[in-house]
Specification:
This protein has 282 residues and is of the alpha+beta class. It has one domain: Endonuclease/exonuclease/phosphatase (Deoxyribonuclease I, Chain A), CATH 3.60.10.10. 18% of the residues lie in helices and 29% in strands. It contains five helices and 14 strands. It has helices at 24-38, 50-59, 144-157, 179-186, 192-196; strands at residues 2-9, 42-46, 63-66, 69-71, 75-78, 81-84, 88-97, 117-125, 131-138, 166-171, 190-191, 219-223, 227-234, 250-256. The strands form three sheets. Strands 3-6-2-1-14-13 form a six-stranded mixed sheet. A hairpin with a 3-residue loop joins strand 4 and strand 5. Helix 3 packs parallel to helix 4 (179-186). The longest helix is centred in the first third of the chain and has 15 residues, at 24-38.
Length: 282
C-alpha cells in the first residue's frame, strides 16, 4: 500500500496580513491549487480557523475532514486531518491536548501560553484492508518545555494501539537537532524527508513570504519502522501566481508492506472519546 501524505501550515487568517496582501482571501486559491496539484491522499493542515476549514472542505470534496479546535467552547485553530474518503475509512478518530490532562478540552500544557493539541485518525485502506494511524499537531512556538513534553506525549499515544503502523506530521516549531525531534527519534520515528535527502542543507520550511529560506526545517512527516519512503520533498512552488502560505508544505510518498497490519484482537483507542467530524457537520 502506497500513499502520499502532506503537512501544510496554511497560516491563520488575520487582519495583520492585510497590508502585505497575504490575507486568507488572497491565498485560498493558491492553497487549494497546491493540494490539487500534488494530490495527497492525506493532508494534515495547521493553523486552520473554522472559516478556512469551511473553504477547504468545500474545495476538496473528495476528502473528509476530522478534528476539533484547540480551545474550549469550539473556537480557535484546528490541526485537521483531511483524507481521501473514496479510499480510506475512518475506524476511529479524535483529539487530545498537549498537557498533563490530555483529555481535558482546551487544557494548557507546561509553559505554553495557548492550548495545543493533536488530531488523530485510525484509517483503513479500502483496497488492501490495511490499517494505520495518523497524528497531526502544531507544537507550541514559545514554550520550550511544552514542545518537548508535547512530543513525548504524542510519542506515548502512538503506542496505545500495539502493532498499528503510524505517521506523525505537523509544524513542530523545532529543528532537526532539537530535543522534541530527539524524543520522536527515541520512539522509533524517522524523518521521511531525510530518508530521501540525507545531505540536503537548504531545508528551511518557514519563509514568511521572503525567499530564499536559509532557516531550519520545522515541518515534518515522521514514520515508524513499518514504512518505507519512496519519495519526499519540500514544495517551494508558487500556485495561482503566489506562495500559498508563510510555510512551505512538505510531502512524502510512503509504502506499507502487505503484512504490516494488526489483528482485530488488538483493538484499542488512542483517545478516550471519539472525535467529531468538523466544518460540514457544524
Amino acid at each position: 500500500m502506497r500513499i502520499r501524505v502532506m503537512t501544510f501550515n496554511i497560516r491563520f487568517d488575520t487582519v495583520m496580513d492585510e497590508p502585505s496582501g497575504n490575507r486568507w482571501a488572497d491565498r485560498v486559491d493558491s492553497v487549494v491549487e497546491t493540494v490539487r496539484r500534488w494530490r495527497p491522499d492525506i493532508v494534515g493542515f495547521q493553523e486552520a480557523l473554522r472559516s478556512q476549514l469551511q473553504d477547504l472542505t468545500a474545495a476538496l470534496p473528495r476528502h473528509r475532514a476530522v478534528g476539533r479546535p484547540r480551545e474550549a467552547g469550539d473556537v480557535g485553530e484546528y490541526v485537521p486531518l483531511f483524507f481521501d474518503q473514496e479510499r480510506f475509512f475512518a475506524q476511529d478518530y479524535g483529539d487530545f491536548w498537549l498537557s498533563d490532562t490530555p483529555d481535558v478540552e482546551g487544557s494548557l500544557g507546561w509553559d505554553a501560553p495557548d492550548p495545543r493539541h493533536c488530531t488523530w485518525a485510525l484509517l483503513a485502506d479500502e483496497p488492501s484492508g490495511q490499517r494505520f494511524a495518523v497524528f497531526n499537531t502544531h507544537l507550541d512556538r514559545w514554550g520550550e518545555l511544552a514542545r518537548l513534553e508535547g512530543a513525548r506525549l504524542i510519542a506515548t499515544r502512538t503506542q496505545l494501539t500495539p502493532g498499528v503502523p503510524f505517521l506523525v506530521m505537523g509544524d513542530l516549531n523545532a529543528g532537526e537537532d532539537s530535543e522534541p525531534l530527539k524524543a520522536f527519534r527515541a520512539a522509533g520515528l524517522v524523518d521521511t524527508y531525510r530518508r530521501v535527502h540525507p545531505h540536503h542543507t537548504y531545508v528551511g520550511t518557514m519563509h514568511n513570504y521572503a525567499l530564499p529560506t536559509p532557516g531550519e526545517k520545522i515541518d515534518f512527516i515522521l514514520a515508524d519502522s513499518s514504512w518505507t519512503t519512496a519519495g519526499a520533498d519540500i514544495i517551494r512552488d508558487e500556485a495561482a501566481g503566489r506562495l500559498p502560505s508563510d510555510h512551505f508544505p512538505v510531502f512524502a510518498d510512503v509504502e506499507l508492506a502487505s503484512g504490516a497490519r494488526r489483528s482485530p484482537a488488538q483493538e484499542a483507542s488512542i483517545g478516550h472519546a471519539a472525535g467529531e467530524t468538523l466544518a460540514s457537520d457544524h
